[in-house]
Specification:
The protein is α/β, with parallel strands linked by helices and 134 residues long. It is built from six helices and five strands, in the order βααβααβαββα.
Length: 134
């Protein structure tokens, strides 16, 4: 299974007491492949520093850079479907380009994909993703 993970979800996977921690635990067990791009890694770093610390950002990026189940790629086409928050397109463009099974997010801007026949992108919340792993 290949997934793209929005920054808002990544932030929640860090704290051990958060529900979303199961995503990190499943990643660590290599249950899925995590797809990232340079642009996404840059945003991860920026937001992790903002919410936690430089040390936390460095640790998370180091884990992603060295894990065997991380796919580093760049989107081959910019769909730019999300108009309410164009910055979110980096996640959907990558997920579509790499034919990801899921994009995991809590962001409602991605709901636009529910109305589209093409391109197809399965957007799920962490709770929905948890059910998919069972």
């Amino acid at each position: 299974m290949r997934v793209v993970i929005d920054t808002n979800v990544l932030r929640l996977t860090i704290k051990k007491g958060n529900f979303e921690r199961f995503i990190y635990d499943a990643f660590k067990l290599e249950v899925f492949e995590w797809i990232v791009s340079t642009e996404i890694l840059d945003e991860y770093e920026e937001k992790l520093i903002e919410f936690y610390s430089v040390q936390t950002a460095d640790l998370v990026l180091s884990i992603l850079e060295n894990a065997p189940n991380v796919i580093f790629a760049e989107p081959y086409f910019k769909w730019n479907i999300i108009t309410d928050d164009p910055d979110d397109n980096k996640f959907s463009d990558l997920a579509i380009s790499l034919n990801a099974d899921y994009l995991i997010t809590n962001d409602r801007h991605f709901n636009v994909f529910k109305k589209l026949d093409f391109p197809k992108l399965r957007v799920v919340t962490p709770k929905q993703f948890r059910l998919l792993l069972k």
